[in-house]
Amino acid sequence: MSTRARTALVTGMSRGIGAAVARRLAQDGCSVIGCASTPGTAEWAAVEMQGEGLDVTGLDADVSSPADAGRAVQAALDRTGGLDVLVTAAGIFREAPLLDLPVTDWDKTVSVNLRGTFLVAQAAARAMTETASDGRITTIASTVAVLAEPDCAAYNSSKAGVVMLTQSMALELAGHGIAVNCVAPGYVRTEMTAEYERELTSEGLARINPIGRFGRPEEIAHVVSFLSSPETQFLTGATILVDGGQSAHSPRP
Question: Cβ distance 101 to 153 under 8 Å?
Answer without folding.
Answer: yes
